[in-house]
Structure formats: structure tokens, C-alpha cells
Amino acid sequence: MADAPVLEIRNLGISLPVDAERKLAVEALNVAVGQREIVCLVGESGSGKSVTALAAMGLLPRGLKPVSGEILLQGEDVLKATPQRLRQLRCTRMSMIFQEPMTALNPVLTCGEQIDEVLRAHTQLDAAERRARVLAILRQVRIDDPERVIGAYPHQLSGGQRQRIVIAMALALEPVLVIADEPTTALDVTTQAQILTLIKDLQRQFGTGVLFITHDFGVVAEIAHRVAVMRHGQLVEYGPTEEVLKRPRADYTKMLIKAVPGMTPPARGEASSRPIVVSTTGLTKAYSEGGWLRKTRTISAARDVTLSVRRGETLGIVGESGAGKSTVARCIARLVDPSSGSVTLGGEDIARLSHVRLVPFRRKVQVIFQDPYRSLNPRRTVRQSLVEGPMNYGLPRDEALARAKGLLKLVGLDEAALDRYPHQFSGGQRQRICIARALAMEPELLIADEPVSALDVSVQAQVLDLIEDVRKRLDLAVLFITHDLRVAARVCDRVVVMRRGEVVEQGPTAELFRAPKQDYTRQLLAAAPGREWRFGETAAS
Amino acid sequence: MLAFLARRALATIPVLAMVAVFVFLMLRLTPGDPAAIIAGDNANTQQVDAIRAQLGLEKPLLAQFGIWIGKILQGDFGESFFFKKTVADLIAQRIEPTLALAIVTILLAVAVAVPLGVLAAWKQNSWIDRTVMALSVAGFSVPVFVIGYVLIYVFAIQLGWLPVQGYRSISLGFGQFIERMILPSITLSVIYIALIARITRAAVLEVLGEDYIRTARAKGLSDRQVLVHHGLRAAAVPIVTVIGLGVAVLIGGVVVTESVYGIPGIGRLVVDAVLARDYPTIQAVVMVFSVVYVALNLLVDLSYVFLDPRIRY
Q1: For labelling, which of A139, A337, A527, B295 has a CA lying 20 to 30 Å from the CA of B187?
Q2: Per the CB < 8 Å rule, is B220 touching A57?
Q3: What is the mean pLDDT of residues A473-490?
Q4: What angle do CA B214, B217, B221 make, to 5 degrees?
Q5: CATH number (domain holding residue B156)
Q6: Range of the domain at B122
Q7: Domains of chain A
Q8: Above 0.90 for ipTM, yes or no?
Q9: Cα torsion at B24, B29, B33, B34 (round to 10°)?
Q10: Cβ contacts of A64 on chain B, cutoff 8 Å
Q11: Separation CA B266–CA B292 (nearest Å)
């Protein structure tokens, strides 16, 4: 039994509902996880990696059914297990860590209760023993103040702490197998680094086998012993991490690895003499809450931010969540009103212009938002979305339509797209439509607020290329907001690093990545997973 | 939290003031003369005028309003034109049957509707779900008096299991009280069962799609634990809201049921008072109802704090 795998997936097939685009979510999949081994299951959305994980836990959603093969947990086929047996196995022998700890935890129960439930369901321990055990496991996942956290609700903790609670739940009974489904995707880069270290450490300490699902090759490089690459439900490549990352055999794997942007910014031309399109001085946005019968509390979402973007240049704002990146962008676009400071656009301070006087400036600043699924009105055709803005500024319908057709071509879509609705497009295509919509206004400044973080890595590369291409062709100023340093390295001429509403450091991208001046920037760079792998540059060979 | 309570208490003042103005003017602007009704069909103009003067109705509207408000502020609702009693006594006499009917009805409705809703959500699209939802539509559609008379016909007249009509105070014995309460409360609760079951189903269904339900299942909890501890608990806010609103609406909605079952409650009092143009009584009952509505709404809002820790005032 010593070397027998803890999880063995043999010839697994899982069917999709009849009306789906393909018949099988997972097809003839063979993957095994040994004791004390971390196997990464890598793939883009729709590759069947999460379905595989849910099948192993017996948690497949309605409509998906295993049709062939077996999933052996220490030799026992979980696909044949009764519901009662599955309940017994969950958390005692196999556990799952989920992607988004905020939604994975019940908001109306305390963290202590939620961990305690695991012990109550599977052990005979009394209340005092369970409490002691909960405290012990909280210490093991390195929660600083376990006594307080036991009584806290999920929303009172940070993202990293929440994910530690989820991990504590999963490991409370020391299962032999842990399935982690993108456990760090929703976290900030420094938190991600801590959680990855924690998972590695605990895995070694408990001797757990881990099936780790991710789309991020940086994470793979950081954590995996072996890698399985999936595409359209099929296994594309399977082997030791070194092998797969350095000498990928399948074209798809090569493409995926090549699509990961490198951490070394490419050399870029000087743009410093071009005219400034937009600049801010001492830009501050404060929110105050309370008031009547209560103490007022002021929170600065952005404090004293001074920056400028020149024509033809991409300025990146990087930082973790809550750093104030989006607030700055929204102040510049006047989607929120700044509390103080100035925003100079076309020689005029627009920070305090009334909404009526703002109208001529609105056209000059256009925004591409993070989630293309939500930033297009689902009830309007692409045509309606594209012509609405220009027509609002007085362009006749046929000219607006002609412009829309030209822009669709520019962003790489067919004219036939005009009469379709957003849901008929993929995520990458939708983001292209969003870019076309922004460009239809002929802006001088394009604000891209995390435009690729909702997209798969291969699609991400295409959309980044498109934004670069558009910037060059139309000589646009681009303000590019991202939490992903690799993305910043790839597209930005200069970078502003923000933390807790303030600018920590700014400078040309290459210089800032090579020789960061501030500790925080160094931490941020050090936290990027798989930084020692030179993705994007060498893997192409 | 205390600040919130203080704010809400202050906010009731304009609400009640508006209700007071509104009910006062509505009564005086609608046709019908209380003095004429009291004087009877054979009275002459002088007699009617004398009664009107006696009731204080010959004064200008503003003066009448001032007197009424002044008295209310001293806790005096005045004297009924018609029943020759103080309005306070009148309401005190009639409040018990109405309160009893309301409480029994809402307890019954919650006890039946919440489990039905949870069951329907859990077994979504099954025959159980479809049956519950079909019954719910039926419950909405059938008028209260139809349900009332059908129940009386079957259980009181044909089977003779329960009394046809009437009310017996709970202080005279629980058995007799509940015996007369069963049919009216079933009648009245039908629509609330339909409403609460629907909302419960929708709320639980939404929660069952959440990630943390999957987490709970991944922990190896039983279906019942997942459903009750995680599902129902997280779905509590909309359910409690609709129950709270249900109670508020119900107090106003007892009129028909009280009439069908001959229960001497507030509902009947309102009907009688309106027919007799008994201004002080109508005004007082409406004011009492608005205080109850406001208080219930506040209670519902306060309950959110206990149901969802993310809500803080």
C-alpha cells in the first residue's frame, strides 16, 4: 500500500446535458495522485478540470453524469459509493478547498461553527474537545488570533484569513487527499504566495496527496510535482513538472506556456516627449460614513495621487485589492467625484466640473471594464451597443454604423457580429466588443480596468496584443489597471505601484522591475508565482 | 444600534402625522352625516343641527382637527358618536378576539408554509414541488369568504365537528377558545400559507445554488443539516420580511373573516363604525393600526441584525 496512489482516475468519462456544445465534459481521463504528491490539473475554462474534481467528491451538479471509468480513493470507487458512504468519506479521507473563500463560507455562521460542524459530523468528540481541536487546527493554518477568529463571521476576516478557514475545514480530520480548485485565484498576489506556502507545508506535514486545479502556470511552477494538462475534457499532456514546463510536447501546452507573460518587461521606446493627455495632482477620494448621532469615519480610497499619461503611452497602475487602483481610474473618468485634487484633461481641470459641462469631456475618456460578461447590456445587440455612444454625440446613424463595422474589423470580429447579442460570444470576443465600443467614441484616453483578468490565458494574450495594437495604430494614451505583474510587465511603458490608496513608487516598467526602490514593490515582485521560470520568453522554442 | 432606534422612533412622528391628517380629511370629505344617522330618518333639521353641535361638528375643520390632536396627545381618543362609550374602551373590548385570531393564524401559516417551501425547494421540479406550487396558486385565487363558507358547511354543518360561529375568550378555557378558533384561522391563513411558502421556496432555492451549500455538502453533512442549518438559516431574511408584512396586512384583513364567523373583533368594529360615520372610532382604529404597522416594520428591520451578521445599524 505504501506506494499505491491515494487517488486514481481511470478512463473517466462524464456526460454533459444533451443540449451542450459537446457530448462529454470529461473523456477517457487517466490521472493519479500519489501519497505526499501534488498533481496540478491545468486547463482553460471548459477544459473539464473542475468537473473532474467535483466528480471525485461526488458533488457533480445535476445534469452531469459519470458514464465510464472509475475514481479510486485508496482503491475504493467513489463513483459506486452510496450517498451515505460518500458523506462518510468527505472530509475524513478526501476534502476540497474552493476558489472563492468569501462565497465558500456561509455568511451567517461563525468560522468556529463551520469548522466545528466537520468534527460534529464525523467524530464523537464532546464540545470542549472539539473546541480544542478547532483552536489547534486554526494555529496550524497560521491564524494569528484563533480565539477571536472562532467567533468571527467570514465577512469580518481578510481574504487570506478566509481561505485559511476553508483550508482548516478541509484538513481538520487529516484526509489522505485534498482537492484544491483554484484556491488562490481570488486572492492578492502576496496572499497567494502565503497560501501556496501554507498548502505546501501542510501537505508535507500531514503527508497528504493534493490534486491542485489551476489555470496559472506560475502556480504550477511553484507547487506541482506532476502536471496534467487538459483541453476540451481530454488529457493533452501528463508528466513531471520540470518535463512539462521545460520540454512541453503537445502544441497546446506549448501555446499555453508561451501565452504566460514573462516577468521581464520587453524593451520599449522613449515616449517622454509626447504631449500629456491626462494628469492628476493630489487626487484624493475619501468616503465618510456615519454622521447623525454617530462618529463620522473617513476612509481614503485614494490619497494624494499624482500621475500623468502621455499620448501613445501605456501607464500601468498595479497593486493589490483595496489599493485604490480602480478608484483613481474612476475619478479620472469622473464615474465617481474626487474629494480633492485636480484631473487635467485637454488643458482643463475636470475634477469639479458639473455633469452638464462634463459632457464634451466624457467622449475623450473611455473605459473597458474587467468582466465582459457584465459590462455589455445582455438585451442589446452589438450594433445597438456600438452606435449608441457616437449617435449620442450627434453622429448620424449610417456614419456611426460604418464606424462600428470598421471597428469590428479592427478588433478582429466579423461584420455578422453586429446583429447578435452578447451571450452569443465567448469571453474573449465580448472583451473585443467592449474595446470596439470604447473606441467608437474616438477617445484620447483609454482606461482598461483589469481587462484580461476574467479571461483564459491564451485569450488574455490575444486581448493584450489587441490593446497594444490599437494603442499604436490610433496613438492612444492608455491607463492600464491590473493586479497581475506579468501583464503589467508586458504592456506598460511606465508603472505606478499603489498600496492602501497611496502611490508607493512609479517609474519606467523595465527599471522598476529590475531595481525596485521600495520594500513593498520588492515584496510584490517576490510574491509573483513561478518568477524564476522565464515564461513567455524561452518556452517558445 | 441605539442611534438607529432613536432615528426610527423619530421617523414615526411624520408618518403618524400624515396618517392623522389623511384619515381626518377623508372622513370629512366623503358624503354622509353622522348627526343625520344618529338622529334617525324621522328627525327634522333642528334636531340634526342640535346633534351636530353636540358632537362638535359645526366648528371649522381646523378647529376640529386641533381639538382631536390635542386630546390624542393627552392619550384621549374621545367618545364614540354611536356606541356611547369612550373609543379607548371600545377598542380594548374588541382587541382580544382580533389579536387571538391574528396570532393563531400566523403561527399556523408559518408552521405549515415554511416546511412546505423548504421541501419544494429541496425537491425542485419534482411532483412535490409542483403540488406545493399549484396549491399555492389556488390559495391565492380563492376568496376568503368562499373558503370560510365551505369550511363551515363541511366541518360545522355536515360533520358537526366544530361550532359554526362565535368567539369564546381564552380566559374561559382553552378548549372552547381553540374550538372556535380553528376554522377562522384556517380560513384566514390560506392566503398567507400560499404567500410564505412561495417566498420560502424562492429564498431557499437561491441559497441552495450558493457555493457554501456545496462546501457544506463537501464537509459530509447530511441533507437535513445542509438544508436546515445552512439553507434555511441563510434564507431567513426574506422569509422573516414576508412574515412581518403578512402580520401587518393580516390585522387589516380580518374584517371578512370576522364577519363570516361572527367574531366580535376590531374588524367588525371598523365595519360598524364606518356604516355609522362614527368619526372618532374610525380615526382611533386607523391610528392604532398605523402604530402597529410602524412597530412591526421596525421589529422586522431589527430582526435582520440577528438573522444576518453582515447587517449592522
Answers
A1: B295
A2: no
A3: 90
A4: 155
A5: 1.10.3720.10
A6: 94-307
A7: 7-259 (3.40.50.300), 276-287+309-527 (3.40.50.300)
A8: no
A9: -10
A10: none
A11: 13
